[in-house]
Design brief:
The chain has 276 residues and is mainly beta. It has one domain: Porin (Beta Barrel), CATH 2.40.160.40. The protein contains two helices and 14 strands, in the order H-H-E-E-E-E-E-E-E-E-E-E-E-E-E-E. It has a twelve-stranded antiparallel β-barrel.
Length: 276
């Protein structure tokens, strides 16, 4: 009993208060996600002859992604909530805005992470042909997350790319994406000037949706990156896996895994998507 009391005294009141605040925030987020799922399920219909085909990334819809996530790194564990609002302007134009709320257990800090904005234009789509779609896009990541608190990268990232589609069968397709990636200098003042530089690289990924049934699909995405053309050792392989199950036509629950094996960074997300 005496050891337990001494152990508790090792923590400051501020640390205990922060942990309680984090726990309360997570409880509130879980309750909000649960209530949104109930509301959506009440006002939507079961999947029968759905007009939505959410397995294809070149089908443009307006939807809201809600995800709780956990990222394991060598220096810290990062917990958070990630909201992704995607707005379909038309069948050929899509805009995405992503906002992460993160907590770093090493720095004991919580805040907004790096914001992401994406624009996707799809001038060609014809799934009746083998070459099913083609279009350019651009992703921009803004260094809004605090690098000192381990909540952001401290760098601007701009990644224009080209997406295509190959219709192998009704149940499986290939969506290759080739992107150029510009990464600005870091805002971290502790990095020496001779090491703090702009980098130019390239990324290739192969999004592969596999349709299991009308309300179930998985997407397997191998990714190869050459992050810095000036560094021959910047080649890396990553793997993403998404599993999605439709409770209703406009309500899907998702499980996601991303592994950056070279850097030993692993991310797991669980949440749901509401199509609006």
């Amino acid at each position: 009993m005496g050891r337990i009391i001494i152990y508790k005294r090792c923590f400051s009141d501020n640390t205990i208060d922060k942990k309680w605040r984090i726990m309360k925030i997570y409880k509130y987020l879980i309750v909000v996600l649960f209530l949104l799922a109930i509301i959506n399920s009440v006002f939507t219909q079961p999947i029968q002859d759905s007009t939505l085909d959410v397995s294809k990334p070149t089908n443009f819809y307006t939807f809201l992604d809600n995800n709780l996530e956990y990222t394991s790194t060598e220096g810290a564990n990062i917990f958070g909530y990630r909201a992704n609002l995607t707005f379909s302007i038309s069948s050929k134009n899509l805009v995405l805005a992503e906002v992460p709320l993160l907590y770093n257990d090493n720095s004991k800090k919580m805040g907004i992470g790096d914001l992401r904005v994406r624009y996707f234009w799809l001038p060609y789509k014809d799934y009746s042909k083998f070459f099913g779609a083609f279009g350019p896009s651009v992703d921009v990541f803004a260094p809004t997350g605090s690098i000192e608190n381990g909540l952001g990268t401290g760098r601007w990232v701009v990644a224009p790319g080209i997406t295509t589609a190959f219709m192998l069968a009704d149940w499986i397709q290939l969506f290759p994406v080739l992107s150029y990636q510009y990464v600005s200098k870091s805002m971290d003042s502790s990095i020496p000037n001779n090491l703090n530089k702009v980098s130019h690289g390239i990324t290739f990924q192969m999004m592969t949706p596999i349709v299991i049934s009308k309300n179930t699909f998985t997407m397997i995405t191998p990714i190869i990156t050459y992050a810095d053309f000036s560094n021959d050792k910047s080649f890396a392989y990553m793997q993403e896996v998404l599993f999605s199950y439709g409770l209703k036509e406009t309500l899907w629950i998702n499980l996601f895994y991303r592994g950056a094996f070279k850097d030993n960074v692993h991310t797991v997300r669980a949440g749901f998507t509401m199509y609006l």
